[in-house]
Amino acid sequence: MIRKLTAPPIWYGIIAAILLILPLVNDSRSTLILMTQIFIFAVFAMSYDLLLGYTGIISFGHAMFFGLGAYTVGIWMNRQDESLFSLLMAILVTVILCALLGYVLGVVTLRLKSHFYAMLTLAVAGLFQVGAEKWRSLTMGNDGFTFSIPEWLMDRQLFYYIAFFFMVGGFLLLRRFTLSPLGRILQAIRENEQRAESLGYRVLHYKVISNIVAGIVAGLAGLMYGLALRFVNTGVFGVDITLDGLLMTIIGGVGTLVGSIIGAALIQIAHDWLTDLAQVHWLFERWIILFGIIYILAVRFFPQGIVGSIQRLADRWKERKM
Amino acid sequence: MEYILETKDLTVSFGGHVAVNGVTTGFPKNQLKSIIGPNGAGKTTFFNLLSGQLKPTKGEVWFKGIDITHRSPDARTRLGIGRSFQITNVFPNLTVLENVRLAVQSQAGIHYQLLFHFKKYRKLEERAHQILEKVMLDHKSDFLAKNLTHGEKRKLEIAMLLALDSEVLLLDEPTAGMSLEEVPAIIEVIRGLKQENRTIILIEHKVEMVLDLSDSLMVLFNGQLLAEGSPDEILRNERVQEAYLGGLHDAS
């Protein structure tokens, strides 16, 4: 459907301006780190939304791309020097590896029906995690390793801006992608695969393309995550990374890129806040329990997420006016 | 006679049940041929074999001298065989306009364009509007497809088929579930299509409706081809009479 975005462009401008000024006003380390994490996970959530919300593919293994990006930059920076050139090479290698993985995985598995595909992605992501643990010579096993990055990148404030423009760029690119003729076909496939086929579209091709694009974007988010921490371990392949992406997408609103950004912000802030509350009561440390409850409630009462629900209200209001 | 679409000994069975049994027939170019038969005669199954949704157990399907038995449904659409579905089969959460626009886009061969905004192709949208006007649905173009009435969804289904601009049109009970007032409009659309020199294959349950529309008819009964010929011949055919009265039983 040709939805107009609910928020007029002026709101985007205001929010962007606030985010641009923020590090100048509040330069506390923890705020900058939290915001940087939000930007990076927003991109990851948007890439997940491309699969779930736009193409209708359910993947439980999206973390494999994320982890691949994080490990690629870590290993590359460790083996090469810490210059800008090797960083650019690491980006290129990440893109190539994620595109290859997305292609092979897509061609082999996307013929399967949705839930079989979901299970298989879970297994493949698990395989990556085990691989990262066992291939000690390359990955240092479970403990992971730290690595150095170009020195100017260590400036938190600069990195904040890089992450911010990474998110804005990711948003604009994915938005253009979803609004292209090809993006519209993806949505048709989500709505009714058989019908898309009988209109003459090769459904499998489109699913593979969607998988590749989502994989590359998620890989770049993982790369940024690695750069932010200057550390990588097997956790980046973990199921909870995928589940975070899923939760952000669903809470924000499936099939709306803005929703993924809002979802990422909410989840990261809640995560941060609840961890702080751990001193008040031990339950808050087990924030995953609380998230489980939120998750159930969201799916039960807010299946369209925040942005989806707002859009529906706006549509109703418009209809009433007509 | 020159056939655009032909079947040779077309058979499909599910487990022990033979749904379509050795049907050999042909569809003449630029003519309208209707498939009639009682419920469960295998009409829709036969359609699914023509459009590729099902693969036959035995036999072949030929289109313009090419064996298309093993081609996928989307490949057949691109070759020029479009179909509509008996059960309403649209994109529920997309607008009516977008439903048709997607079909126009496929027909225009814009399949892998990912850099430009879809609105750049304004011609596609204009064409979609024209088609919606043809089926009298243009006033609903901004509605979500799932919010249409049943009859309107049927019209949308036909609009999407029209948008494909195929040489051969397979129409599976286009008026099924429509209110009586809506039926004549759809018949008019089909009559219009016929004048555009297209090959139309029509499944219909209500025989009286298609008699004056069809150049020829074929009768399916228990998966077998019972008879085919001009409307007059079919009407006079005793076996058809008996089948519709329920007197005839399959040899098996």
Query: Describe the biggest sheet of chain A?
Result: 2 strands, antiparallel
End-to-end distance of chain A = 19 Å
Detail the poorly predicted runs of chain A.
1-5
- The count of strands of chain A amounts to 2
- Average pLDDT across residues of chain B? 85
Distance between the first and last residues' Cα of chain B? 32 Å
Radius of gyration of chain B: 19 Å
The counted number of beta strands of chain B is 10
The backbone outline of chain B, from C-alpha atoms, is globular
From the helix content, strand content and strand pairing of chain A, which structural class follows?
mainly alpha
Helical content of chain B stands at 25-40%
For the largest beta sheet of chain A, what order do the strands appear in spatially? 1-2
Please render the helix and strand layout as text:
The complex is a heterodimer of chains A (322) and B (252).
Chain A: H1 9-25, H2 29-55, H3 63-79, H4 84-109, H5 114-134, H6 136-139, E1 145-146, H7 156-179, H8 181-191, H9 193-198, H10 203-229, E2 231-232, H11 239-252, H12 257-276, H13 287-301, H14 305-321
Antiparallel strand pairs in A: 1-2
Chain B: E1 3-14, E2 17-28, E3 32-36, H1 43-51, E4 58-63, E5 66-67, H2 73-79, E6 81-83, H3 96-107, H4 122-134, H5 150-164, E7 168-172, H6 183-195, E8 199-203, H7 207-210, E9 216-221, E10 224-229, H8 231-236, H9 238-245
Parallel strand pairs in B: 3-8, 3-9, 6-7, 7-8
Antiparallel strand pairs in B: 1-2, 1-4, 4-5, 9-10
